[in-house]
Amino acid sequence: MNASRLKATEQPIDTSTAAGKCFLDMLGVFAEFETNLRRERQLDGIAKAKAAGVYNERRFRVLESGT
Known about the structure:
Elements: H1 18-52
């Protein structure tokens, strides 16, 4: 079995142990949770701005090649 392992030198993370794997998984879960919270806040803010009539959709523009 060629399993990759991570051992951080400045954090107590060693994925060759059960506790290290658990800790790394928990970090991932909290990172995803924070991303989801940020997205919810963003969508709430956009909805409020639209209701107040102050939200302008983002306009995309096509850049010519070579510029």
